[in-house]
Amino acid sequence: MRTTRKNFLKSSALLGTAAGFPAIVPSTVFGEQAPSNKVNIGVIACGGRGNSCGEYLYVPKAQIVAACDPKKGMLDARSNVWKVAQKDRYSDYRELLAREDIDAVNIATPDHWHVPMAMAAAKAGKDVLCEKPLGISIEQNLAARRIEKEYGRVFQYGTQQRSMQALRMGVEIVLNGHIGDVKEIYVWAPGGQHGGDPTEAPVPKDFDYELWTGPAPVRPYSKDRCMNKRGSWHIYDYSIGFLGGWGAHPLDQLQWWADEEDLGIPFEYKTTGSINYNDLFNTAYHWDMEARYKDGTQLFFMDTDTAKRVKKNPDMDQLAQFYNCTQFVGTKGWVAVAREGFKASAEAIRRTAKNPGPRRLPVSKDHKGNFVDCVLSRETPVSSLDSAIRSDIISHMGDIGIRTGEIVQWDAEKETVIGSDAARKMMHREMRAPYDRLMI
Predict the structure, then answer these.
(1) What is the pLDDT of residues 214-245, one digit of tens each?
(2) Per the confidence metrics, is the pTM higher than 0.85?
(3) Which of 324, 306, 308 lies closest to 316 in space, CA to CA?
(4) Contact 64, 53 (CB under 8 A)
(5) What domains can you pick out in the chain, each with its CATH number?
(6) pLDDT exceeds 90 at position 23
(7) What's CA 412's distance to the chain center, in Å?
(8) Do the Cβ atoms of 127 and 255 come closer than 8 Å?
């Protein structure tokens, strides 16, 4: 029988229950062309953050050679802009990963697919840029280390604020001691949504709902579940909400500093929040975390509305225009970093940005460009996997605290939640077969 894409999908589906999942076959089966001298990018998921993949068109060393999305309308709309040929458009990611001419993938799927898809890509020999947040469980986050350790792939986390000059300069001011010893950090990010319409509807003919669902539980199709621009970001089957999805950005700036100071993450978390458990959108939409590091440094992490309302931060009125922010408060002053720029408690502190001192952070002016450069050089990108794992665990510790109503603790040496069996069990999330095999 002649090998066609249709036959390939049938056989790989069978392999999912027989000999392993997913099946990867050489691109030569389909007559693909030899690789060019550019980094060949395959885009997996074209909507939402996938829309940003147009930035690769301005990276001289890269080219988009294929795209994948289970929503055909979205796939075609973006592929037309990116000039991806019809033969290079796929609804099934396994076809894209089977191509040997693809060097790297950009993963912008719903959150529940992030780590499983990244693992599948790594096994297929592809380097990975994965959108934030990382996993939908701490267990997934820890397993993601295999992408580098076992498969030797380059991984860039989609926290593009590390490629913004003003944020890097602000963190360098802190690292070089210009605000003294850091005692408190205030972090805030946009809150989530509640509500959502769960009304069951027919699955659109051009939408592969089974593949979109993947490792998540099977649920009745509804427009708000799948077609709402941000719907899946607020449904617990697929995410932990903006606690992780938006929180990833300002927590990433915190982690950039903490990694340089070898602080790791806090060991104790007290988090309260609001979740409408009976809504379709059933993740935290407000939250208020107080956490402690081993050296006594305190972290206060809230959604933006809560941060402005409770004003635990005495400088909040000066920073109210920042909708997501990381503020470092030291013994000599403070620095706050955000997408709009950075602020300092004194002009003398702000002026140190041009020549902060010997402690400098990696310079990246283009997040996707940095990823492409590292694919070629095999160096570690500016937003490393290890740092992503740590910052994302902070979000999960908050979610676990809200859902259990307990103060939760983290054992950094054993990398596990301690002190509560209920909290520890929440490190794990069930994955539906056969997609659970992607984590093996």
Answers:
(1) 999 999 999 999 998 789 999 999 999 999 99
(2) yes
(3) 308
(4) yes
(5) 5-160 (3.40.50.720), 162-194+225-365+384-425 (3.30.360.10)
(6) no
(7) 21
(8) no
